[in-house]
Amino acid sequence: MTYGQPMMNANSDQLLYEQSSCSLEYQTIDLDSLSSQSNHSYGGGQTWIHYYPRCIRVPRCIGCCSKRGQINFDDWNERQCRPINVQYKTVIQTGQSIDHNGMKKLFRRKIQVAYHTGCQCQCRQNPRCQNIRQKFYDDSCRCECRPEIATERFECSKRLTIHGHMFWDNDRCECRCPQFYYAYIHHLNPMPSDTYCPSGHYLQLNNCRCIRQKNNIIL
After folding, report:
1. Can you name the residues that pair with 119 across neighbouring β-strands?
2. Of 12, 59, 132, 165, which sees the most CB atoms within 10 A?
C-alpha cells in the first residue's frame, strides 16, 4: 500500500481511462493569438484598441492514445489525438479606444475559429515508406513488409547455407545471409558484404559464399 495516494478499484481505473482518452473537450483559446491585428494603434501610435471577448471556449481534441487497460509506450510515442472533422465559425469581437481628446470609438472585427467536431488517434509518422517492398499500416503506425511477399518470407527459413539458415530481415523485407544476423538483431550499422570475406573475394548473396573475384573460385 502506498501512502498519500488514493486507492482505486477496477471501476475507478476504467473511469479514469475513459476520461483521459482521446475525445472532445472544451478549451479556452486566446482570440488575439488567432488575429493578425491583436492591438491596433493609430494617430502616431498614441491610441490603442482593446477587443473583447478576449477568450472563448471551443471544443478541441485532447487526450491519450494508449490501448484500453494497457501501458503501451509505443502507442504514446507513435499516436496522437487529432481532429478528423473541423468546422470554422466566425467570431465577432468588439473593440473600443479612447484618443488623447477623450473621444471613444468602437470597432468590430471577425475572426475564424476552428471547432473540432470529431477526434481520432492517428499516427504521428508520415505514412510513406522508403522501401517499395513495404507498406504503411495504420494499426501499427509502421512500415511493414507487403503481404504479397509472404511466400518469399516463408521460403526464406528453409534456405540452408554452409554458415547456417538464412533469416528474414523485416527492415529490408528480404532474405539475408546468416553473416548479417548479428548486426541485424543488435541494430548495428550495416557493414559492406565484402567485410565477411577474405581480401579479393566478394559475398554471393544467393548462397552466402565467398567467391574469388578473378577466377570465381568458391571458398
Report:
1. 83
2. 59
What's the length of the chain? 219
Q: State the total domains in the chain.
A: 2
Cell of 30: 486566446
pLDDT in tens, 153-183: 999 989 999 889 999 999 999 999 999 999 8
Average pLDDT over residues 1-21: 56
- pTM comes to 0.58
Same domain, 138 and 207: yes
Domain encompassing residue 113 = 23-28+51-124
> Biggest alpha carbon distance in the chain?
100
> How far is residue 48's CA from residue 42's CA, in Å, rounded to a whole number?
7
- 45: phi > 0 → left, psi -120 to 50 → alpha, else beta; which? left
For 46, 127, 157, 173, 174, the CA distances from 151, given in Å and listed in that order, are: 77, 25, 11, 12, 11
At residue 119's C-alpha, the angle toward residues 114 and 124, to 5°, is 100
Interval 58-92: pLDDT, tens: 999 999 887 654 555 555 578 899 999 999 999 99
The residues near 50 (Cβ < 8 Å, ≥ 6 apart) are 39, 95, 96, 97
In whole angstroms, give the CA distance from residue 74 to residue 53.
41
- My answer on whether 118 and 145 are in the same domain is no
Residues 6+ apart with CB under 8 A from 165: 157, 159, 178
